[in-house]
Every structure is written in structure tokens, then in C-alpha cells.
Write a structure and sequence with these properties.
alpha/beta, disordered N terminus
């Protein structure tokens, strides 16, 4: 089997890698590994092209990297798209398998510290099964955050965005400019919003709130 190798730097779970946003860089030459850290969620991504592989695309974890297998004839644009798709699928599978209420609370604490200066301090963070028309909710007076069980299995950066969204509501009510300014530091806000809008459109659910620029 012959393959051409391309190595990407995968974005971290918090979105802080070189590949933020919807785009992905072109493959580097074999042996080039970008931005790999000790954090298991921040792995290099190696693309292997196979002449034997006709249509299918596969991905798996291999030590400290993610390997994506694609057909040899696939264009670079298709390659970049499929790398993103497979990273999301792997992340969704791992989120569904490992993220419980305790991990969710720990994740909220890390996000608050990283993006909100640890100012948002929820007293409880948990999954709920009675939110079918919204992704998350919070009660600032109680310091409680609830995420819909429908987010379970979604990519980690999407869960992080919704968590951060609700953390920001502990500080600022409503969806005015002050609220959206709190989310500007999170580099995958637009990609996460696009993902949720796609799901909402498919399921005919209300869209996620749009930023306003006319004052609180």
C-alpha cells in the first residue's frame, strides 16, 4: 500500500490550536508535527492516502496522534473537509463515552478560568432530559447550569461553547453586546454556532441567539 502523508496540528478541545475555525491547513511534508502538547485532546493529525481505499474514510487514535485514512484520489479540498468531519466524529464518540456530570462541572470550571477570569462560579452543572427546545439554561440566582442531554455525543468544542455561553449568563443576562464580548475570547464560537444552527435547522428547533450591536 502506498500513501502520501500529511500532518496537521489538531485544535485542542478548548479550540486553542493552530487550526481554529472551520478551515484546516494543507498537509505538511511527512514527519512535520505541529503544536502537539501533553494534553491528550491536542493531538497531531496524520493523513494517509491509500490507492486501495476507494470511497471510505476512516480515523482512529494512535498514541499521541490521530490517523485519518482517505482514498489516494481525493482532492486537497476534500481532504481538509474530511479531516474536520472525522475529528468531529471522534470527539463526539469520546464525549458520549466519558463526559458525566462530574466531568461537566470540572470542564465548566476550566472554561471559566481560561476565558472568563474565573469570575463565573457555578454551584452546579448537570445534564437534564427535559430541555428539548434549548441547548442549555442557567439560573444565576442559584448558580446552576443545565445542559440538554441532546448535546451528549456532540463534538467537545460544541459542548464547551454551550457551557461557556451559560457561564457568561451567570455574569450578564440577555444577549446584548456585553454578553457576546465575553465569548469573543473563545476561538471556536462561530464554528460551534454554525454546528448548532445546522442541527437546529435539521430538527426545526429555534435558532441560537444572534449577537446584537445596538446596546444592552
Amino acid at each position: 500500500m502506498r500513501w502520501r502523508r500529511g500532518v496537521y496540528a489538531a485544535p485542542a478541545a478548548n479550540g486553542s490550536g493552530p487550526n481554529t475555525g472551520a478551515g484546516l491547513p494543507r498537509p505538511r511534508r511527512a514527519g512535520t508535527v505541529l503544536g502537539v502538547s501533553a494534553d491528550p485532546a491536542q493531538r497531531a493529525v496524520e493523513v494517509r492516502r491509500s490507492a486501495r481505499r476507494r470511497r471510505t474514510v476512516a480515523a482512529y487514535r494512535e498514541g499521541d496522534r490521530t490517523v485519518v485514512l482517505i482514498p489516494a484520489r481525493m482532492s486537497e479540498a476534500e481532504e481538509r473537509r474530511w479531516v474536520g468531519v472525522m475529528l468531529d466524529r471522534l470527539a463526539a464518540r469520546e464525549t458520549r463515552r466519558t463526559l458525566g456530570d462530574a466531568e461537566l462541572a470540572e470542564r465548566a470550571d476550566r472554561l471559566s478560568e481560561q476565558y472568563l477570569g474565573a469570575r463565573a462560579r457555578p454551584r452546579s452543572v448537570r445534564w437534564v432530559t427535559n430541555q428539548n427546545t434549548r441547548w442549555g439554561s442557567c439560573t444565576p440566582a442559584e448558580g446552576s447550569i443545565r445542559l440538554s442531554h441532546r448535546l451528549q455525543g456532540k463534538p467537545e468544542y460544541v459542548v464547551d461553547y454551550v457551557l461557556l455561553h451559560e457561564l457568561a449568563h451567570l455574569l450578564v443576562p440577555g444577549h446584548g453586546p456585553r454578553f457576546w464580548a465575553l465569548l469573543e475570547a473563545y476561538p471556536r464560537t462561530e464554528r460551534a454556532r454554525g454546528y448548532l444552527e445546522g442541527v437546529a435547522a435539521a430538527e426545526r428547533l429555534p435558532k441560537v441567539p444572534e449577537p446584537r450591536h445596538d446596546g444592552d
